[in-house]
Amino acid sequence: MSVRRLADKSTQPKEFAFTAENLAWARGQIAKYPDGRQASAVIPLLWRAQEQSGGWVPEAAIRYVADMLSLAHIRVLEVATFYTMFNLAPVGRWHVQLCGTTPCELRGANDLKKVCRDRIGEQMHVTADGKFSWVEVECLGACVNAPMVQINYDFYEDLTPESFSKVLDEFSAGRTPKPGPQVDRQFSAPVGGPTTLTDPQIYRSNGKSGGGQQPLRDDSAKRPGAAANVTEAPVPQRPVGDASRGRKPTRQE
Question: Which segments of the chain are extended strands (E)?
Answer without folding.
Answer: 94-99, 132-137, 149-151, 154-157, 180-181
